[in-house]
Amino acid sequence: MQRFLRKIAFPFSPVYALVVHIRNFLYDVGFFKSVSFTTPTLCVGNLSVGGTGKTPMVEYLIRLLEGHKIAVLSRGYKRKSTGFLLAGPESTVNDLGDEPYQLFRKFPKISLAVDADRRNGIARLEALVKPDIILLDDAFQHRRVKPSFSILLTAYGNLFVDDWYLPSGTLRDSKKEADRANMVIVTKCPESISDAERTSITRKLRLKSHQSILFSKLRYSDSIQGEGGTIMELSQLKGKEVALVTGIASPRPLLDYLKSKEIESKHFEFGDHHNFTEKEIQSFSHFQIILTTEKDYVRLAGRTKSLYYLEVAHGFDAKDKKMLESAVNGLV
After folding, report:
1. Residue of 323, 56, 310, 85 whose CA lies nearest to 187
2. C-alpha to C-alpha distance for 224 and 232, rounded to whole angstroms
3. Among 34, 56, 69, 211, which is 20 to 30 Å from 232 by CA?
């Protein structure tokens, strides 16, 4: 069905691509201005609509920058607030959006703000917080700001060079805009990826001389966490009635991981950043265990019993980890 809908939508993709190219051209020739800031800004983004692991990458960078005064600025997609908002003790998932709220809940010592206007958001953070560095979450296509350093993520199973423009594909920006990135990270790589395949992908992406390329793998936890800090080993789910609830762009890696652990579940799949209704929650609330992602957990917490989430993080080999650490620490 999805393939059929994409075929129907194909005539609209060239129109979308044309609009994107014109917009970027106007920035390239200086008709629209890109602004730099005094505070170092590290942008994490992609060219597609979700599914590359941006939030786990921001988490990785926060841990990498431990000891520095860190601020994170996000748009706050699907939040119910407007304008600039600096997260505080009373902030909710509806105020911030699911991913920013997840970050603030996990790292309460950082400063986190949401603002669709990244220029305004950075200026307000500089005035209010005076951070050592600002992480710009999902801001690669936001060209009104020229970051100090840009990391572009692209998923192993859907490299941007193989993708097509919305709505028949998942690209929301021009492929050639990848040239603006300082570093490209191929995410969600298989454990068995070889040096030969890395070389092949590097050639396929046709990176510029100023760009470096890294490869990461998803690292899922062996345990799940619930309300009140409850922790349960994944192995304890065997033989139980498990509902897997996902509102993310690409649930396949999670499904494959659970299968590798011999965990059987009924998958309730929803769109990315989904706002769950009470009727939808009722459809899976009778299961012994309700397993979800950390992003979805913040929307479901307190609304159903036996709710747990599975943490995921990026993993790098020693060489790539050192390259990333060197690049990031060089900014502060």
Report:
1. 56
2. 5
3. 56
